[in-house]
Design goal:
single chain; three-stranded antiparallel β-sheet; mainly alpha; 3 strands; about 400 residues; 18 helices; Receptor-associated Protein
Length: about 400
């Protein structure tokens, strides 16, 4: 049974808020009246559903679900029956439960977009808003098909990125373990051998520093590991705050090599969604409000929101985007020309295609450079350890 958030007053006028389980908003109002409460506002509770990687709902599964629903609706199957068909045939338990609750809410009269909003963290802000716009504008089938294609492309890009980064990450992990094992188990064996050189102040500085760091890891390694874990946790907590999210998004855009890739993907997502909505007849202001959620970046989101205000004042879209300084110059120029020729929807999709191709090439180049860089770093670290151990041995042999 779904939950509803309510605001009500009692006979004394005291304001009360809470949640109540009911089959519909009318049922919730009746339950509140039975408790001698006068409802002011009743709305479906939008609780955060578990993230898709916790529930096992992958991006490809969501894309398939959107495409199936779009296909059924295009062939004349009613929405409720379409939801029931997809719910019954899916083998994913979490998705089946979500579709069951969405079916119940739609059956009670809630729109599909509002029903999906309960699981916003799983479906995504952009998908929920596009479905809402499609339902209101009468192009729900096309909106679902677009969402399916967009989700599939994003999942494919994510999969290719993870596959490309798998080897560099493996190298980094193995290299860290090897160097740590050398410092903890091998280097201490040379401590006694080099003691005489230390007493004569003849021990090389690099070797002395290596032995000191080895002793530190042996004695305080566990505490250091716990401190690093605590620091990562605290950083994650901070990044979940609005201020932390903003600083993180700025850092992503300004980081060398990675920044242009991240910016290209974010701007491409924005352009594709905006072009799709404009092509389906959605107003420019509503399209901007929906498409800015597709960026996944607070800084770009705010820049687009500011552009919406300027458009309300009668300005063009390209002007505020250029003034923000966060959008590539070539993209802004193409948008400006498209606005003059009244072909903004088509040009935005073309911009998205071009940005995705360019970003894909940049990503491939970055990964190709990352592998030799990781090997070089690992080789340099091991070489420093070897040199630090060989220098005093060669010095002792020369003395003998």
């Amino acid at each position: 049974m779904p939950d509803f958030a309510y605001t009500a007053r009692d006979f004394s006028g005291t304001r009360t808020t809470g949640t109540i389980s009911a089959t519909s908003e009318k049922d919730a109002a009746a339950q509140l009246s039975a408790k001698q409460l006068f409802p002011i506002e009743i709305a479906p509770e939008t609780s955060s559903a578990p993230l898709s990687w916790w529930t096992g709902i992958s991006g490809s599964l969501l894309a398939t679900t959107y495409a199936q629903l779009a296909g059924l609706l295009k062939n004349g199957v009613p929405l409720l029956r379409s939801l029931a068909v997809i719910r019954d045939q899916t083998s994913n338990v979490a998705l089946k439960q979500m579709l069951g609750e969405i079916y119940t809410r739609v059956e009670e009269g809630t729109s599909l977009g509002d029903a999906m909003d309960r699981y916003r963290d799983t479906f995504g802000e952009m998908a929920v808003n596009m479905v809402r716009a499609g339902a209101e504008g009468g192009f729900l089938e096309d909106a679902l098909a677009r969402v399916a294609k967009f989700t599939e492309e994003q999942d494919d890009l994510r999969s290719r990125t993870m596959s490309a980064l798998a080897y560099p990450v493996f190298l980094a992990g193995v290299g860290t373990l090897v160097v740590t094992a050398l410092l903890i188990f091998v280097v201490p064996n040379f401590e006694e051998m080099f003691q005489r050189l230390r007493e004569k102040n003849q021990l090389p500085g690099l070797t002395d520093a290596l032995l000191g760091f080895s002793r530190f890891l042996a004695q305080w390694g566990i505490l250091l590991l716990l401190a690093i874990g605590f620091g990562i946790w605290r950083l994650q907590v901070y990044l979940d705050t609005p201020e932390g999210r903003r600083l993180s998004d700025i850092a992503k855009l300004k980081t060398p090599l990675v920044g242009p890739i991240y910016e290209g993907l974010a701007v491409a997502s924005f352009c594709r969604v905006l072009g799709t909505l404009l092509g389906n007849g959605v107003s420019i202001l509503k399209s901007l409000d929906i498409s800015r959620q597709a960026c996944g970046n607070v800084v770009l989101n705010d820049a687009i929101a500011a552009a919406s205000l300027n458009i309300t004042a009668g300005q063009k879209l390209a002007t505020p985007l250029k003034a923000s300084g966060w959008f590539p110059a070539d993209v802004v120029e193409m948008i400006a020309v498209a606005e003059e020729s009244n072909t903004l929807d088509d040009v935005l999709v073309q911009i998205a295609d071009g940005l995705e191709r360019r970003t894909s090439r940049q990503l491939d180049l970055f990964v190709r450079l990352l592998e030799p860089i990781m090997l070089l770093v690992l080789a340099v670290v091991v070489l420093l350890v070897v040199i630090a151990l060989l220098m005093p041995i060669m010095q002792m042999s020369q003395t003998l």
